[in-house]
Amino acid sequence: SVKLNLHMFRQYEIDSTVNNINSLSLSVLKGVGVENWSENDSDFTNFSIENFTVEKIGDSTFCEKDTMSIKIPVDLLTYWADTSNTNYGLVIQQVDTTQQNIQSIYSSEAAYPSWLEIKYELKNDTTVYTKSIIASEDLTIMEYFDNPINEENLVISYGRACRVFLKFSVEDSIKDKNITIAKASLKFHIDQANTVMYNESFYLYLNALKDSSEYNDPFVDYSNVNFDAYCDVSASDTLITFEINHEIQGITSGYVGNYGFLIRSSSKNIDIAKLSLFSSSEMNAYSKRPYLEILTMKEQ
To answer: Which of 74, 89, 188, 211 qualifies as a cystine partner to 277, CB 3.0-4.6 A?
Structure first.
């Protein structure tokens, strides 16, 4: 007998008010002359399931933090063993593709990977042996329901390497270098219509840029970069605030140059989440645009 054991992680629901438990289908990919996929080189731009013959094997109900097992026909191993056939592997899909939930399964790189379990007997031997095989390659090709990115908005996403840059010319408004910044709050209004958080919290870091070229690389590694301010955003929030008293004080006092601020996603955020913020291009200036709220003090 042969079965595929999948270690489930969790389901991400786009709408917490609708409790949909999705079923997943397992199919084998077959084809003739189709270029095979690879874990390192394939993505949604060069992989299309329509190029293959998809033969369904079976369904199973998704269950968080559990193991889902689907029986596989024994003759599929014979098919793969035939060197004249290309082994394109297996594909796991949602049975109901209208659902906007996303299921997460542990990959072969995880501490608890999914595995193929084969039970067999040797010739002239009644002992039943078990062999477990972990996938040599696995890959996620994701297509999910999403509003297009509004080019006029500020978008932050860990998966898309999107981050926000903005600058306020506070030195033009506060010219006295001896003024004390008692409080400086940077505030953004969330565009909820274009935000997709899958009911997760969104964790944001802010950095005051040290020069005009800093952080231009969208794939820069932030693992060793300290942040100047932090904010977490829940799915119900409409406004986010960063407290940046020290950073604004440095600019108005002339200790540092004003090169603006970078706001980036924490790696804690799931790749599919997207936070959309109204920008300075927003028509409704006073109720939607980002703004700095500054409280100053001066000795008499």
So the answer is: 188
